[in-house]
Amino acid sequence: MWKAPPLSSLPEIDRAKYDEWLEERKQNQTRWGHQVVGYPVLYYMFQDTYDAFFEDSRQADWEALDNLLARPWWSRTWVVQEVWHSANALLQCGGTTLKWKTVEKAMCYQEGWDDMGCLVKKTSRWQLWDTLKRRYGLAVHISQKRLLGSKLSDLLWNMWDREATDPRDKVFAVLGLVGEEYAEPLPCIDYSKPMGRIYRETAASVIRGEKSLDILLAASGAGSGEDELPSWVPDWRREANDERPALFINGSRMRILVYFSGSTDVVLLHGHGYSASGDMEPSVRFDEELNVLHARGFLFDVVAHVTSVEEGVAASHIVEAARSTLMPSVEAHPGLRGVTNDDLKVILRAGGFADPSTLRPEDQVIENIMRRRSFFVTTSGRLGIGPSDTRQGDDIAILAGCNFPMVLRPGDSSHHIVVGEAYGKYSPGLEWFPIVVD
Fold it and tell me: What's this model's pTM, rounded to 2 decimal places?
């Protein structure tokens, strides 16, 4: 377990900011979360040593490993439970066997895929990098066992990219991995129920048991309507995850923790570093069929202008598009005239950390964050980013128990439809009132 270094060992930094980071870490540990992230610190320490592994001369070695990890076994949902509950597992391919502990050691450094992508750009593997990131991500996840004994929501998030012949198994296969302290209440394994019912019961169980609405970050969202899933209920099938943007992570909050840890193995970011609703617990109820969620919160703004980002667009074009979206609001909000491109970049990277002296340049962070996202300006002159499906007239809401602002689309009879999570700033002290989501 990582321990805070003594203050005497710290470099010249803002000690008050350090204390703030430590307090945030304590809070995140109590919340847990759906992400475990880190930096390949050993790579940075021995950069010259590792550079040779990313040359085309090692292409045949990488291809052999790429092909091994391409086998369907790695992507199946049920195999996670089989491996994690095994004391002495063996990996067998054809007539060759390998101790699973050796696999764990081999995969422990494969963490910073976005960073490593900068190195792979100079090799012939770059054309397959999106596929390889997913492939190696699945192998890292199953080999590290970090979430064994976690909350149900953590496990569902991290199993999302796996395959299951029966979509109900995306829930049933992880129930045996939930920690004892989180075991009540859990959904019952009942194959007589349809997928839609299982997913609705699971979402309601997570909200009630974990006393959090962060499951809305995985919500099916506007326009889903398939398999009888309301917009607030996540669709845990892998193909549903393919069209989602990457989750927000406040990298700047964890930077100092990573720096002093010395290894990605001991830096675990619990939660995501954001807390839009503070320590408010959700106040919710459901209709009998679990189709409608009644929550408490406030609608504090409305989207006035919005622009979506096309796939593969460079960061410079994303900033230009944001600037163009901003301009129609300048007359109504003169203060927006002072918004610089640097100000826009902070929004476009969701406040995350970027450092040009490492393998994580700002342009790369912006391009990753803004994939399948939109930049918007509200009627009150606030700047933010949300899902690519965000439209003019959508409401921006803060829900008690949800750590992100949410984009909600007004529906019929004062109901709303979940569009997705947003990043931005809001004014506290507004009046709370019921919000109905279906």
Answer: 0.81
